[in-house]
Design goal:
305 residues; alpha/beta; Rossmann fold; 2 domains; 6-stranded parallel beta sheet; 13 strands; 20% strand
Length: 305
């Protein structure tokens, strides 16, 4: 099955009987989502031959081409889409409707075609919850949480923490304008007193003094080789735990700093697997072999796929 990235202009209609799935983003070359989904579909086809005709691609779609791409993909036979940077918030006015959790998060990462339009969901929060528990043995609701970022992934993280019962959450970002907008929106749903925004350049001392702090990176800083860390961990307690939603590269500058400081850390591979499994469940309405997806993800990250 083809797993190289495509551009929207390179696509042609799917063959009769084929069902298309894809992840859309920019950049997208780093994504291993096709390996995970195609491995799961292959396993599912053993009990249901229909899934032998399902195929998952990665497609590079710049922000200004998303509105054009969505109807085109539906016309070509695509029935399920994942969205990554920069589309999770920008897609909101382009869908027919979104489910309740995605509405609370103000971001969508999964689309399902219902015959008339795209229905939006968000599986990022589910994936984050499972990933943090799996990698760090930490439940979101039992943590003092600091989220870095103010985009779609950050919205999902903040909302999931608050939905799970975190009394309050700290959010840092470089752009205060975007951070203020996110804090206002989520504050209306969950209570403004529960969200504490600040500039990444000025982390409050009371945050640095917290024990059992969980730092979640939901920015794109780290995707590129020379990206700096979004946050200096200097001065944070050694029992701080760090989770970076980025999985490729497997160790970002932030995680390197965490490792050197003796902090427990994890990357976004576990989150990717669990959010992907949940998305495939939405598209197929059937149980999905998450263990197969995890094994494939680990192989892909070792360069064996």
């Amino acid at each position: 099955m083809p797993e190289g990235s495509l551009e929207i202009g390179e696509l042609s209609p799917l063959a009769d009987g084929q069902v298309g799935l894809a992840v859309l983003g920019c950049p997208i070359a780093h994504s291993i989502s096709p390996q995970l989904h195609n491995a799961a579909l292959k396993k599912m086809s053993e009990s249901n031959p229909e899934y032998a005709h399902w195929i998952y691609h990665k497609i590079e779609v710049p922000a200004d081409k998303l509105a054009e791409a969505l109807p085109k993909l539906a016309e070509m036979g695509y029935r399920g889409l994942n969205l990554t940077i920069p589309h999770k918030v920008e897609v909101l006015p382009l869908v027919e409707r979104i489910d309740e959790e995605a509405k609370l998060m103000g971001a969508v990462n999964t689309l399902r075609w219902n015959g008339n339009g795209w229905i939006g969901s968000n599986t990022d929060g589910y994936g984050l919850e499972k990933g943090v528990l799996e990698d760090l043995s930490v439940a979101l609701e039992n943590s003092e949480v600091l989220v870095l970022g103010a985009g779609g992934a950050a919205r999902a993280a903040v909302a999931k923490c608050l939905l799970n019962g975190c009394a309050e959450i700290r959010v840092g970002n470089r752009s205060l304008e975007r951070l203020s907008e996110m804090s206002e929106t989520l504050g209306e749903e969950f209570g403004k007193e529960r969200i504490h925004p600040f500039a990444l350049s000025a982390i409050p001392q009371e945050t640095r003094d917290l024990n059992n702090l969980l730092v979640i990176n939901a920015t794109s800083l780290g995707l590129r080789e020379k990206d700096p860390s979004p946050l200096s961990l200097s001065g944070l307690s050694s029992d701080t735990k760090v989770y970076d939603m980025i999985y490729n590269p497997p160790e970002t500058a932030l995680l390197t700093e965490a490792r050197k400081a003796g902090m427990a850390f994890g990357n976004g591979l576990s989150m990717l697997v669990h959010q992907a499994a949940r998305a495939l469940e939405i598209w197929t309405d059937e149980p999905v072999p998450a263990d197969v997806m995890l094994k494939e993800a680990e192989l892909a990250m070792k360069g064996l796929r």
